[in-house]
Predict the 3D structure of the following.
Amino acid sequence: MKATFKEILETVLMALAIFLLLQTSIMGFVVDGSSMEPNLHTGQRLLVNKAVYFRTEVAFLQKLVPWIKSEGQVGYFFHPPERGEVVLFYFPRDNRQIYIKRVIALPGEAVEIRDGQVFVNGRLIKEPVTIPQARAPFGPITVPANQYFVLGDNRNGSSDSRSGWTVPYNNIIGKAWLTYGRPWEWGVAPNFDLPLAQASPK
C-alpha cells in the first residue's frame, strides 16, 4: 500500500511540475485584428514560446549553459529577440493590452521607411512578398537601448512603432511559435529571416 501511495504521489508531483513548466514557458493566444495580414488573420490561434527570450546575469547563466548569447552583463538562455520574429508584447502605452507585431529593428539601430521599403542602418531589409509595402515614409529614428522597433505585416493598416513608441524588452511576452485550430491552420508561425542588403544611397 505504501509503495502504491508513493508511486501515485510521484506521478502527481511530476504532472504538477510539467504543468507549471508549461504554464511558464508556453501560452495560447488568439489573433484579434488585421494588422498582421496576410500572414496571420483574426481568430487564428497561436502557441507562444515564452521561454525563448529568458535572460539573466551572465555570471549565473554561465554556470548552467555553455551556449549563452550575452549583451554586456546579461545572458540569454536561447537568444534575444531577432529581426523577422513575430512577438507578443504588452503595449507600452497601456500594459492591459497585448499586441502582436514583427521585430524590424534592434536596440541602437536606425530605421527608416522610404519609397515603400524599410531600411535599417541604411541597408534595405529583404522582405518576402507577403509583406506589402508601406505607402507613407517614416524616420529615420534610432531605436533606444533595450527596446525594439516593430511593424505589423499589414503595413497600411497597422498601429505600430511608427506611432512613436518602441517595445522595451521587459514588455515582450514571447515569440509566436505554432498556429493551431482547424486542421488546415496547423503549422509553424510565420517568423521570417529578414537579411539586410548592401547599403543603399538616398
Q: What stands out?
A: Confidence is low (pLDDT under 50) at residues 15-22. The radius of gyration is 20 Å. DSSP finds two helices and 16 strands in the chain.
